[in-house]
């Protein structure tokens, strides 16, 4: 935890990106770092996009009977392809920022820094894989 | 915890900690660190950047831990989406084999657990964001938590039945 993450005044939330910080109200939320706002913005989009994606993949279609042709036809639609990429990108950004702040809260050691970097690299690798799969075959 | 349940007031006018005053030493900021439930956060940044880890003592930490576990499962779901896309891009037959395996009852039950985690993480996150941007909702904390639990269960049960039903029907038909 760095000094920048401390509440700026009494009642202000701790900038840890976690389940905290409701005491300061609107002005307190404005004091948060960019990563806090980015994490919340991504979360608000994901709370709509992920259930829509899950419903389209597992509720409207039987996951055991989904064929490669059906999935290819779905991904041939550029809107669906972009939405899929957006879900993956937003989720990985949200996860990386949240993990980084949660690790920083525990202790600012070399180990947590390395772990944060590892999470970032893993997220980057997943996003690169998704981008390659979505935009190399269907474009 | 409602502010009326707190036992002492700190000089800054913020809700007091439930622990001993020594557990929240003077901080580099205007007052001791107190989490959104009004409980003190022991050590950590309150003692300076090099202090011991800051962890909520009780109460909200359980809910936070549950949200983190649900978040981790949700990330696993996203990782699965990426793997699914990569397999589809590489080989159509491998994709077909993968989805045949996903049609089993066990895989569907795992999907149901992932769906439960996604629902909980999303709805509980909405509650947290709503409370952060509208502090007046703090007074309705218990109602909001109850609403989250109700919505999660009311959504999860019927949708899980939709996911599991094809495998159950096949099992009875065999």
Structure description:
The complex is a heterodimer of chains A (139) and B (174). By secondary structure, chain A is mostly helical. In chain A, 70% of the residues lie in helices and 0% in strands. By secondary structure, chain B is mostly helical. Chain B is built from 4 helices and 2 strands. Chain B has a two-stranded antiparallel ribbon. Chains A and B meet through helix 1, helix 2, helix 3, helix 4 and helix 5 of A and strand 2, helix 1, helix 2, helix 3 and helix 4 of B.
| Main sheet summary of chain A | none
Mean pLDDT of chain A: 80
Average pLDDT level of chain B? 74
- CA radius of gyration of chain A: 19 Å
Describe the global form of chain A.
elongated
- Whole-number tally of structural domains of chain A: 1
**Uncertain stretches of chain A:** 1-24
Figure out the total of helices of chain B.
Answer: 4
Q: From the helix content, strand content and strand pairing of chain A, which structural class follows?
A: mainly alpha
Strand fraction of chain A equals: under 5%
Low-pLDDT runs of 5+ residues of chain B are 1-59
CATH class of chain A: Mainly Alpha
Which percent range describes the beta-strand content of chain B? under 5%
């Amino acid at each position: 935890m760095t000094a920048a993450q401390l509440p700026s005044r009494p009642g202000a939330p701790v900038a840890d990106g976690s389940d905290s910080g409701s005491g300061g109200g609107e002005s307190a939320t404005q004091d948060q770092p960019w990563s806090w706002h980015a994490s919340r913005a991504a979360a608000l989009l994901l709370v709509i996009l992920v259930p829509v994606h899950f419903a389209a993949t597992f509720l409207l279609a039987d996951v055991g009977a989904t064929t490669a042709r059906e999935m290819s036809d779905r991904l041939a639609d550029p809107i669906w392809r972009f939405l899929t990429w957006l879900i993956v990108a937003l989720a990985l950004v949200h996860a990386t920022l949240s993990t980084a702040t949660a690790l920083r809260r525990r202790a600012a050691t070399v180990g947590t820094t390395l772990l944060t970097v590892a999470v970032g690299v893993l997220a980057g690798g997943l996003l690169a894989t998704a981008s390659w799969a979505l935009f190399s075959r269907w474009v | 915890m409602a502010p009326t349940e707190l036992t002492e007031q700190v000089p800054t006018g913020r809700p007091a900690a439930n622990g001993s005053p020594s557990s929240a030493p003077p901080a580099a900021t205007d007052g001791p660190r107190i989490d959104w439930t009004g409980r003190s956060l022991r050590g950590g940044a309150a003692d300076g950047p090099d202090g011991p880890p800051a962890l909520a003592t009780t109460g909200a930490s359980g809910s936070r831990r549950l949200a983190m576990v649900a978040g981790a499962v949700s990330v696993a779901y996203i990782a699965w989406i990426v793997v699914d896309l990569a397999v589809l891009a590489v080989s159509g037959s491998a994709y077909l084999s993968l989805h045949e395996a996903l049609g089993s009852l066990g895989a569907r039950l795992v999907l149901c657990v992932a769906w439960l985690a996604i629902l909980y993480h999303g709805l509980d996150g909405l509650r947290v964001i709503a409370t952060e941007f509208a502090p007046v909702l703090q007074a309705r904390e218990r109602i909001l938590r109850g609403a989250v639990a109700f919505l999660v269960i009311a959504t999860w049960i019927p949708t899980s039945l939709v996911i599991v039903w094809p495998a159950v029907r096949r099992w009875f038909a065999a």
